[in-house]
Model the fold of this input.
Amino acid sequence: MKSITNYPYSIILASGSPRRAQLLQSLGFNFEVRVTNADESFSSEMSVYEVPAFLATKKAQSFKDIIVDNELVITADTVVVLNNTILNKPQNREEAIQMLKSLSGNTNEVCTAVSILGKNFERTFTDIAQVVFKELTDVEIEYYVDMHKPFDKAGAYGIQEWIGMIGIEKLNGSFYTVMGLPTHLLFKNLVEIGNQ
Done:
């Protein structure tokens, strides 16, 4: 691959997340955003660590019959895991507050999977980061929820927001994986695909 700006595929980012779009743009690739409503159900028997790859693949497969030869689709899914339980996006203020109380003083894992689908190939990979929160006060939790309204975020928090700045003591893994896109792995895979 001679140049990122002349990438040999037209890239479709199948995600409504402004954070993922911002990260992919920061990697230097041109792309368009196209979202389908893929079914995001999964078996309760499945390991929590397998769920993101399963869902990212499922989202990618919904494009299988609509992409053309020179297109590739990037899909992603992120879960926050605490004590082997997935914390989804909170439905309301109370649920967001409860989630953050459960994360307070604990280590959670953030698993982000990415699927890259072309007409004749598909590859999926997962990255995991450990996030350590300090003991959060009720005032800090309620301020964050009321000011930032993290209802579109798994686990009710964004590492790049105020709560991450004041509350996260330690991170083992990629900051960008926690944001929702393991940029180091995505770049590596896109370069490999572009060189094939």
Summary: The first strand starts at residue 10 and ends at 13. The chain is about 35% helix and 25% strand. The radius of gyration is 17 Å.
